[in-house]
Structure formats: structure tokens, C-alpha cells
């Protein structure tokens, strides 16, 4: 049989490429003549660059930028064979690297520095993968690195970190948009939240980045004030657009610069040629660390399943954990949902044993599929 293996990463345990390789080992034990096509996936968050590089290659570029806490790092950018430069926010201002630093002091400046460096090097097709950010500054620091001047009541310039927005009095956006006039800017995200309000960046995503519940309303108001000033200056209404609340408001900054929002998983699938690959296989395996009702909201396995359904190819889900929803929507989207955890075990044990357990699970599912096809 011909198998397509298109999983996302098992976060904290296995990269997407390692997940696909473990699946292949199991399948080949059940089907020694198997033809396995590996297409590790991502949804615009952590691992997006690596998934693309594993499938289509490209050239790695590196630039010195600030991380979320202000330290200078060498951050990678992947230049794809088609000329698209892919910037992964998680590798510049990612949540794990921010540690226990106060969220008010974190800054998205490094993302703006990376964009400026790409423009300086002549790149005119840029994709920004937004997932996995640690900041919640409304994209203010990112835009400040690109020329936006944020000023307090005394006319002093602010850096744009979250703690600065309480002092914001006025701003100067002259020249901010000119550099992007001839740039094709794509925004890869699975989030459609607006910048502020009950479904905004701070209310929905702020707590997981360290925003205290008592501070949500105040911070949301400060970000709203910033965006109102900037929208008014540029005569736009960007803060209400779907996706402007992605990545702590970086979605707002990218939309303001003329970016086009699209599903991260669909964008990655397009660059991987997943639709064409599906025409050459008999069965598909996808998966992720944990699958639940949120999986169907634009996550990589849901994208793979939708493309497989359109191609008439069966698709099974092999994830670290599978949490069924009462409506059965997750189960109804796949030809079988399987979890690696078949006995009581700690999370640490499950993550450490993931390669072996995944290969065993892939082998058993493959044997069931082969037996059913032989009996048909």
C-alpha cells in the first residue's frame, strides 16, 4: 500500500518529522512493501520552518534580532525554493524562551527587526507564521522597529513593550507603510480573534502568557487606545479585523502593513504539495500531541483530513491523547482516532516513550487496515 504520513509535531516530545518517521517504522513492520510518503505538517506555529524544510528544502538565513526579553539572538528565516521568506514568530519571541519574565516587559520588537532585515536584503515575498508568541503588546514594539514613533506626554519615545502602552500619548506613523508597498505579505495563523474585547488577544490568550485576571481589562484598554490612535492616523479600521488578535496583537500589526490573513495549516499544505501527493496514496495518517474539539478549528490534522476527504482517501488520526467531543465531530472527521496512551501513565512517561509507542500504534492500525482490505 501507499501511505501518506502528514502529522503535526507532538509538542514538547517529537518534531513533526520525527512523528512521521516513527509512523513509517510501524507501518513497514506491518507492510514490508509499503511506500511511505512523508509530509510532516505545521499550522503556522512552532515547527513551521522545520516542516517546510523537511519537505521542500530551501535556504536558511540568519539575522541578529531581539528576543522577547531584549537579548540579542541569531534568528533563522527560511527562504523557500519559490522565493517566499518564512519568518517563524515562535523562534524569535517564543513562549518557552520567555521563561518567567513579566509579560509587561516582553516586546515584539524582534519580529519588526526581522522584517526590516528581510526588506533590506531584498525579499519581497514574506510569510509570517504567527503561532507560539510570548508577547501581548498589540504589535506596538514590532511596528516601532519598523519606524512607528510612540511618544509619551513629554514627547519622549517609547519602545512599545506592553508596559509602555500605559504612557502612550500620541504617535507618528509617517513612512510606516511605504516600505511594504511592493511586498507580498502573508500572515499564517489559525486564530480569527479581533485585537481587543471579550474575544481579543488579552482576554483569550493573555492568561496563558502570564496576564493576571485582574489586569485583563486595564491591558485590553491600553491596547485598544494604541490601536485607536494608529487606525485614526492611518485612516483604517484594522483592530476589528478577524485575526488581528493573533500572537498578542501581532496579527493587527501585520494586517496594518497590508498582510493577507490565511490558515497556517492550509498555507503549509500548499507549499508541501499535499493535494497532489494525495492523488498517489491509498491511506493517510495524521496526528498531534493532543486532539480535541479545538483540532477542528484550523489545526494541521483537520486540514489534512479535509484535503484527504476531497481526494477520496481515508485518513486516520494517531495522536498522543484524543479527547472526544460530545457531538462526535472529531471522530466523524477521521477514519478512526487513536491515542498512544493505552494504559494509565504520567505525561512525562508518555512523552519519553512517544517514538516507540507511536511506531507500535501505527503498526497495529496498519495491520487492521491491511486485514480489512484483504478481506474485502
Automatic annotation (TrEMBL):
GO terms for molecular function: glycerate kinase activity. Belongs to the glycerate kinase type-1 family. The keyword Kinase applies. One of its GO terms (biological process) is organic acid phosphorylation. This is Glycerate kinase. Keywords: Kinase, Transferase. SUPFAM superfamilies: Glycerate kinase I (SSF110738).
Amino acid at each position: 500500500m501507499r501511505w501518506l504520513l502528514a502529522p503535526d509535531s507532538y509538542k514538547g516530545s517529537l518534531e513533526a518529522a520525527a512523528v512521521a518517521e516513527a509512523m513509517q517504522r510501524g507501518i513497514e513492520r506491518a507492510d514490508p512493501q509499503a511506500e511511505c510518503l512523508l509530509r510532516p505538517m505545521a499550522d503556522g506555529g512552532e515547527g513551521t520552518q522545520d516542516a517546510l524544510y523537511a519537505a521542500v528544502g530551501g535556504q536558511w538565513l540568519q539575522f541578529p534580532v531581539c528576543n522577547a526579553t531584549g537579548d540579542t539572538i541569531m534568528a533563522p528565516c527560511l527562504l523557500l525554493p519559490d522565493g517566499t521568506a518564512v519568518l517563524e514568530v515562535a523562534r524569535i519571541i517564543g513562549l518557552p524562551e520567555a521563561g518567567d519574565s513579566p509579560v509587561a516587559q516582553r516586546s515584539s520588537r524582534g519580529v519588526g527587526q526581522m522584517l526590516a532585515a528581510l526588506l533590506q536584503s531584498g525579499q519581497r515575498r514574506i510569510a509570517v507564521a504567527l503561532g507560539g508568541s510570548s508577547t501581548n503588546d498589540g504589535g506596538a514594539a514590532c511596528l516601532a522597529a519598523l519606524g512607528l514613533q510612540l511618544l509619551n506626554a513629554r514627547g519622549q519615545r517609547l519602545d512599545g513593550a506592553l508596559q509602555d502602552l500605559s504612557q502612550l500619548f500620541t504617535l507618528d506613523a509617517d513612512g510606516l507603510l511605504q516600505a511594504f508597498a511592493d511586498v507580498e505579505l502573508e500572515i499564517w495563523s489559525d486564530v480569527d480573534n479581533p485585537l481587543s474585547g471579550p474575544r481579543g488577544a488579552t482576554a483569550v490568550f493573555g492568561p496563558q502568557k502570564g496576564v493576571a485576571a485582574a489586569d485583563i481589562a486595564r491591558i485590553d484598554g491600553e491596547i485598544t487606545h494604541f490601536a485607536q490612535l494608529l487606525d485614526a492616523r492611518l485612516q483604517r479600521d484594522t483592530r476589528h479585523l478577524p485575526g488581528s488578535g493573533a500572537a498578542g496583537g501581532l496579527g493587527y500589526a501585520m494586517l496594518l502593513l497590508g498582510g493577507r490573513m490565511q490558515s497556517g495549516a492550509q498555507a503549509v499544505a500548499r507549499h508541501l504539495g499535499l493535494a497532489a501527493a494525495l492523488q498517489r496514496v491509498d491511506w493517510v495518517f495524521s496526528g498531534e500531541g493532543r486532539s480535541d474539539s479545538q483540532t477542528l478549528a484550523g489545526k494541521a490534522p483537520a486540514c489534512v483530513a479535509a484535503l484527504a476527504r476531497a481526494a477520496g482517501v481515508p485518513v486516520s488520526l494517531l495522536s498522543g491523547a484524543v479527547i472526544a467531543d460530545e457531538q462526535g465531530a472529531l471522530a466523524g472527521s477521521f477514519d478512526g482516532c487513536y491515542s498512544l496512551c493505552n494504559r494509565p501513565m504520567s505525561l512525562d512517561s508518555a512523552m519519553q516513550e512517544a517514538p516507540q509507542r507511536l511506531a507500535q500504534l501505527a503498526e497495529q492500525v496498519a495491520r487492521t487496515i491491511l486485514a480489512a482490505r484483504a478481506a474485502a
